[in-house]
Amino acid sequence: MQAGERHRRYWRSNLRMTGVLLAIWFVATFVVSWFARELQTLTVLGFPFPFFMAAQGALLIYLLLVAFYAWRMGKLDEEYGVGEDA
Amino acid sequence: MAAQSQFTSQLKRYYSLYTGGVIGFVVLLSILEQMGVPNQTLGYIFLGVTVSLYAGIGILSKTSDVSEYYVAGRRVPALFNGMATAADWMSAASFIGLAGTLYISGYDGLAFVMGWTGGYCLVALFLAPYLRKFGQYTVPDFLGARYGGDGPRMIGVFAAILCSFTYVIAQIYGLGLIVSRFTGMDFGVGVFVGLGSILFCSFLGGMRAVTWTQVSQYVILIVAYMIPVIWLSVKHTGNPVPQIAYGYVLEQVTAREKVLNDADTPDGAREAEVRGILKQRQTDTEARLRALDAGGEDYLAAERSRLAAQVAELRKRHAADAEIADAEQALNAFPKDMAAANNVWHAELEADRLRSSPIAAHAEPYAGPDEETRDNKRKNFLALVFCLMVGTAALPHILMRFYTTTSVKEARLSVFWSLLFISLLYLTAPALAVLAKYDVYTLLVGSSFSELPSWVSAWASVDKALMNVSDINRDGIVQLAEVTIGGDLIVLATPEIAGLPYVVTALVAAGGLAAALSTADGLMLTIANALSHDVYYKMIDPKAPTGRRLAISKGLLLVVAVCAAYVTSLKPGDILFMVGAAFSLAGSAFFPALVLGIFWKRANKAGAIAGMVSGLSVCMIYMYITYPFFGVNAPLWWDINPISAGIFGIPVGFVGVIIGSVLSRPPTAKVQALVDYVRYPNMAGDEGRSAS
């Protein structure tokens, strides 16, 4: 069984999405934490912004990322006809 | 399809009934408590009932089918696999330790919160769907098939056992602590009782039994964690959603910290007075350490006889009993030899140093007196987050769980459910830490020593390391610098801090037990499967009949359990370090080879071996030379703590895989076809569909 053109395009879309989601993950985690001291003066819902991000914001972003990935990949599977029940 | 959805709705019904049963059971016990049943008995009933419940599920799920035993028949619905993964994931360290770490380190402790959740993004994006498509039984299975030959599989087995064993010891340790604290049994007995119940589940039914017990353990552990925190939140803010309410409490904690740090306010002045006394004590201890260095054994002997003379002198002039007792205690506690003196005095010095410095603001990131300290903390924070995340996406007992879903789609979905169920606890822990801090800062500090809150005196009498208050400046009022709180206390004492009945305390203990048991279950199964499936079946005797394979797996489980119990009984130290070490080790050994195996077709056997060996070695060597336990004490590389050794091991692993692969021949067409097979949920599409 050989992977055809359609499979290659599916894989490229997958890689693109993985890259974008990973970039969001990186910014939410590492970039925000790196500048935590500088961002200390901002407040969100009564929390200092870096504390909010590390204790809640980042977690919610992770959840969204994983949910979006699961949903979008399901779509891609169908679009390119590589879904399990295709 | 229809059978599967019927199975799912059946499961939903069972577990709803079960959750109702748990709540009913708690209510029943609280009625018993009102009727005057003693606490000890309640504790026994609670632990006894939950443990036999898990064992019962284990017996009901017993199996002798290979696919049922190793991957629960691959029909676990995403939602339930999410709960099982969450229980598998959240260990005693998360349940009991995390809130305490946050209480003590404030913002800096949040590295664990982010690290232990963000890793699931990596699991979702890089591993879970592909491993599910691959569809074998263990993580070394994938390495063996993708890279060919026994080499990569063997290294995989070694690494899986190394990190799972390190991790399981930390769990059993926590198990022993909980059982012994709440039933009064001996630590060793506690370990064996806990182990017995683990074996009951995994022994009879393998992954199938472990999965269904883990789901039930998740229910207990999350209910146990939430009830006291919600109560505490209502008490302090009137809002039953602690995750939202604690922003307001945090503001008040921060305001209170400012007052206590300001020597111009009356409260701040009293704190400053206590800190002054502690500083003086610190100077005295430093002087003693210097004298010890100079005088050695002679100095120790002279000091000891001076203390003895003091006792004798007090006796002779019939001093007050309390005074004599104090002097005797000082003599008895006097270190026996040079090494003990060094250890004890250095520990005292460190404890006093911590207490005598001003309070670090809870929400302040990387607090420190100078730029260098702050930079150091930031570096280590980021390194730790990185290691915990990558380690999450490489621990075999977690990855294994994604083999058990029905399809690739379900595997992706099940990462979402896992993360959701895990986040419930991880969003609550920082709230608990702040709420507890608020209680200590406002209710305990400033109260009088004659009327301490009852939970303080209760815990202080149980364990001095968990709770210790002493009136250092003898003014009869509690100052913050006079209070020492051990991290583990926060979760264990929350029900009492919130003024809840003892039943809730027992529930929390049962929750901690569930957390430790579920993780230990998954880990021991991983070790036994690596040995029986990967070593025995795949490498020694590929023709072995099913019955013998399962018998060997079960036998090995017993051996592993006994070894783990033995090592744990030696009490090899710091739980948090062991847990962190497991993450760094797993990340360095597995992550590069697994991810590149899926995303880079050119990766081959030589690369995998080079990457896994070099990554793992760098990580182990760094831990060995820098972690004080091993006694080498080499200087740190770029000030990175040994717990984050993976920050060196993981990149080295990637470089190793790449260099090794480039320098040798590309993998065969068969292996490349396997990579394609793993990448696409369905390969059949192309030719068949384009023809139609």
Describe this structure in words.
- The complex is a heterodimer of chains A (86) and B (692).
- Chain A is mostly helical.
- Chain A has one domain (5-79).
- In chain A, 71% of the residues lie in helices and 5% in strands.
- Chain A has helices at residues 5-34, 49-79, and strands at 43-44, 47-48.
- In chain A, strands 1-2 form a two-stranded antiparallel ribbon.
- In chain A, a hairpin with a 2-residue loop joins strand 1 (43-44) and strand 2.
- In chain A, helix 1 packs antiparallel against helix 2.
- Chain B contains 26 helices and 2 strands.
- The longest helix of chain B has 51 residues, at 187-237.
- Chain B has a two-stranded antiparallel sheet with strand order 1-2.
- Chain B is an all-alpha fold and 692 residues long.
- In chain B, helix 5 (92-105) packs across helix 19.
- Chain B is globular.
- The interface between A and B is large, with 50 and 58 residues.
User: What is the typical, i.e. mean, pLDDT of chain A?
Assistant: 86
What characterizes the major β-sheet of chain A? 2 strands, antiparallel
The sequence of SSEs of chain A as H and E is HEEH
Helical content of chain B stands at over 70%
Helix fraction bin of chain A:
over 70%
Count of helix runs of chain A: 2
Describe the secondary structure blueprint for this structure.
The complex is a heterodimer of chains A (86) and B (692).
Chain A: H1 5-34, E1 43-44, E2 47-48, H2 49-79
Antiparallel strand pairs in A: 1-2
Helix pairs in contact in A: 1-2
Chain B: H1 2-34, H2 39-60, H3 66-71, H4 78-89, H5 92-105, H6 110-134, H7 139-147, H8 150-183, H9 187-237, H10 242-261, H11 266-295, H12 297-316, H13 321-332, H14 338-356, H15 371-392, H16 396-399, H17 408-444, H18 454-462, E1 467-469, E2 483-485, H19 489-497, H20 502-540, H21 546-569, H22 575-599, H23 605-626, H24 646-662, H25 669-679, H26 685-691
Antiparallel strand pairs in B: 1-2
